[in-house]
Design goal:
Layout (H helix, E strand, L loop, with lengths): L2 H13 L3 H14 L6 H26 L1 H6 L1 H22 L5 H8 L2 H12 L6 H18 L14 H22 L6 H27 L6 H29 L1 H7 L3 H11 L7 H18 L23
Helix pairs in contact: 1-11, 2-11, 2-13, 3-5, 3-10, 3-11, 5-9, 5-10, 6-9, 6-13, 7-8, 7-9, 7-14, 8-14, 11-12
């Protein structure tokens, strides 16, 4: 292997461990946003910024494919609703009342839902090993939601945030499956730009409603900083590194590293947000992460939302 290629490979092996770390920045943004900026306005700002940056690089392609975009605009509106509205604003809404660790662990079960959906909707094979993974992962999610108090479910204080994150997890699975269902002639970056624009269009009326009901009294430099950080660091920064490393190392190898997300979230939640992880988080992770592996497998990571970033369109990092 040429020396230049070897250096690139070494750099890619280092940087893939940075990708899940970059995405944990969104957990911090979500937890810092209450009292600074509303969830819909934050999501609108984030994806408007992402769309503008992507269009700067893909504008020519989007213009040349305008006839295709006109025919399939409704697909981008649906994908934008799932990926940017539900998996964006609703995550920010949910993070107002639940911890960053809960967000990460509940979201970690999304590959399981994609595996189930692919078997039921797309006709993909589903083995007993994958069934075991489903059982493990869903048990782990429920363990986190009930905070480990199975024997005292009646006394558990459920928070609305877990429900918001659960809904976003289902939407994430639908988002990934629909991308497989609806092939596109656009490049990965151009299709993501089109989805971002669809997300901006569906977020705009929600953000206007939020502003009309709550006002912009809290808008200022802190709010702008959250928008820029959310748009550039967990969004474009993580996507660029992911796509570059994937070309060098392959999709499966890069995708598996993203399963470290909950572990990174535990550290960030404790160090930055002061959210000490509990025993129920550790037990939940011990169930969810092996469950995800059984459903997807290292070699079949293309079925996961992480690896659909490696496909025709990188899905939105909605967390």
């Amino acid at each position: 292997m040429p020396e230049a290629a070897l250096r690139q490979r070494r750099l890619a092996l280092i940087l893939i461990w940075l990708v899940p770390c970059l995405w944990t920045v969104n957990y911090v943004v979500a937890r810092k946003a209450p009292g600074v900026i509303g969830p819909y306005l934050l999501a609108l700002g984030r994806w408007t910024l992402a769309a503008l940056v992507l269009m700067a690089f893909t504008g020519g392609e989007l213009w040349s494919k305008r006839a295709e975009l006109a025919r399939t605009w409704w697909q981008y509106a649906i994908l934008g609703s799932l990926g940017m509205l539900v998996c964006g604003a609703w995550v920010y809404q949910g993070a107002r009342s639940t911890s960053a660790m809960n967000v990460a662990l509940i979201y970690a079960a999304s590959p399981v839902l994609i595996g189930l959906g692919a078997a039921m909707w797309l006709g993909e094979r589903f083995s007993w090993r994958q069934g075991l993974g489903v059982a493990l992962a869903l048990t782990g999610v429920l363990h986190v939601v009930v905070r480990g108090q199975w024997a005292q479910l009646g006394a558990v204080h459920f928070v609305a945030g877990d429900a918001w994150i659960g809904a976003a997890t289902v939407a994430w699975a639908a988002y990934a499956l629909l991308q497989k269902k609806w092939p596109s002639g656009l490049s990965s970056s151009a299709r993501l730009a089109a989805i971002c624009m669809g997300g901006v269009l569906v977020l705009l009326p929600c953000a206007l409603w939020e502003v009309s009901s709550q006002g912009l009294t809290q808008w200022g430099w802190p709010a702008l900083a959250l928008v820029v950080v959310a748009g550039l660091v967990p969004g474009l920064g993580a996507y660029w590194i992911y796509g570059w490393a994937q070309k060098i190392l392959g999709a499966s190898r890069v995708a598996v590293s993203l399963y470290l997300g909950p572990l990174y979230a535990a550290f960030v939640g404790w160090w930055v947000l002061g959210e000490a992880p509990g025993l129920h988080h550790a037990v939940g992770a011990a169930l969810i992460l092996p469950g995800v592996f059984f459903v997807t497998g290292a070699a079949s990571a293309v079925s996961t939302p992480s690896s659909s970033k490696a496909g025709n369109t990188p899905p939105v990092e909605t967390l």
